[in-house]
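User: Structure please.
Assistant: Input sequence and predicted structure:
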Amino acid sequence: MRKIEGSWWEQLRRVFGAIVPPLLACSMGFSCRPVTEQVEDLDCDARELVSGEFRVRQVPCSDELLYGGEGRTGDYLLENAVSRYLFRDPARPLYILEGCGGTMIDASAWYGDDVLAEMLPLWHGLWLQDCSVDIREDESGAFLSVTGTLSSISLVESGDVPLTVDLQDWSYLVGQEHVVTYSLQVDDAALELKGVDSLWILPLDGVELHGSTLHDGDTFFATDGTITDAGGGFLAVDFSSIAVGDASSVYAALWPGGQQVAGTAEGEEVELLSGDVVVGVLPVADWQEGDAPGFFSGTLPSMVDGLRAVAAGHEEGPVVAPGPDMNLVPGDSGFLWLRVSDGSQEDIGALLEAVDVHGQELVFAVPKGGAQLPLGPGTWNLAISSGLNRERAMLDSVNLDGTTWIDVSLEPAFDSMGWILADLDLESWPSRTQRTAAADAIAMSGAQGASFAVLTAVDEITEFDAYQPWDVAFRGEAGSRAATSNHGTVVSWPWSPNSKKAAHGAVDWPELSAMDLLVVARGGSKQDRFLVVDKDWVEAAGAPWQWEPVPDLLRLNGLDDLPVLLDLLDQWIDIGVAGPWTWIAIENTTEFGLAEVERGIIDGLTVASSGPLIVFSATSLVTDGWHGKAETLVFSLDIYAPDWMDISGAALIVDGEEARSWTIDQEDRSNGLSFHGAVWVSRYLMAVAWGDDDPGLPARGEPWAVTSPVWIGSPTL
């Protein structure tokens, strides 16, 4: 306990809490009443609470916030001597744009790590709007209530929160007043919830699920119901309480009556089972693969009747009944030590796709110099690639038992000097559909050949983690994706992820028109962000000649989107192209910065693609340099793709019409994929290419590519 300074009354006030605490305070004659102090009237009191203390209040200073959390002064803190829970102020949530606040955004034990990004309580798939937060205390504990009117939210309606209830059955509740209440008792890690039937839990990246328990290291967050993995977050149902803290505190609070266990384990974790069902986990301290056993201990949930050691690259260990002095081991191991080099035996980064005989598929990013990859024992089929400009290696029926070493050399398929591969919509945390940390997303993108990426998430702002294990410099930006319900999608960058506004300051699109969305995404007069729009936005935005600003790039998802692009070009809209992959022309591809990437985009030197690269140029024979006056141009069209990627056709588009086309024999590409000629042009020309079969990663679907237009003179009057 920290020493408390000050007068006798100040000491008494601090010991009992700034807002008179539990049983003892009430028995001394202090009134147990609702807490009504305004945040500006509260003194900062950042001390640790001790046994018998609890409180709920609006946070008056940053020192009272949870370590590593995203709270701010004015949020609400509900805490006792065991656990701390921080709730967003009632104005807006933190990770979504809809509804009101009152959501839990931080949760930890004292001196523990925060594991929570945001927890959204739902009532039959609905959340609140126009809400208020009320706080009070009585003899037993502290209470926080959120009151508002029920409303539907797109997070649920889109299916990103996979509720099993039919929203139509509960639509009559929309507009009704509803109350969600949290109560925290004396010295209890459990937080009781009322007015809630499901929880959408968005954890911090790195948090893992075991049964009904989420944990990151030694910090555990659990419910006494069921938690399922829903992609970007977790969905909890059939619960009455949640708890946060170390494993023993959480399990004892939610499932009292369990026994104490301790022992050693050769594994990263010890899973706790009730029959065949995993209900929790205990961490193992001081163990690494090949080292002496580590140690574990803790209080089990009352229903646990078996424990087993688990470790990456191993089968599950045998289940052992709880008892004293346990010694647990995982099952057989299967590791692949993989090193990948180029044709000159220089180490390169790579992508490994592995599929076992049962259809289990694993994908790994392999850094330069190689890595030991925990596939697990068994027989695997392996596909090893390193970008779209190299050949692939296919290894079938590789048996892993213990550790197997493989060196692979991947020959160049073509020289992409002058072009880099970009991933302009790389989804990462906090995504609604997947939990991929920024560093992991960048590693996977780099393994597929990218040198530049914009990290994005729907209605959020991501972070960019400059992780560079690849054989080229990797650059990137934090971006945001406004995926609207009525006027398409706009991707924009760069953004700062540091704001604590709703959705961290991302575009608040629900009340905006398509053009207003674009203006806000650009950043108004103070910013100059890059903008990528899709065909749905184009169709919703009105007459292109009225657009201000004009988007930088049109995102094509395939050749089916090509008519939208041609329609814009026919109206003299100067717009480049982006795709699932985007090739960008850069003079020096080994040493470049963001300025060089941006210059390539501004100059229209991009190719939208699922994989192939088209290098296209046109030279005028008659140079009067003004649109509307036809010229004869000599064109050169070169298609680059590895042999494992089918290319079956190409075409030259002039002034919106197909002017030339070529059929390509996939079995005979000995003459290359180069086409030359002369053509009469009045406005613009561009090239496209396509194939028939999806070759798999690192390609993104059936092969196709579209170049940005080459204009005759200026595309604007």
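The mean pLDDT is 88.
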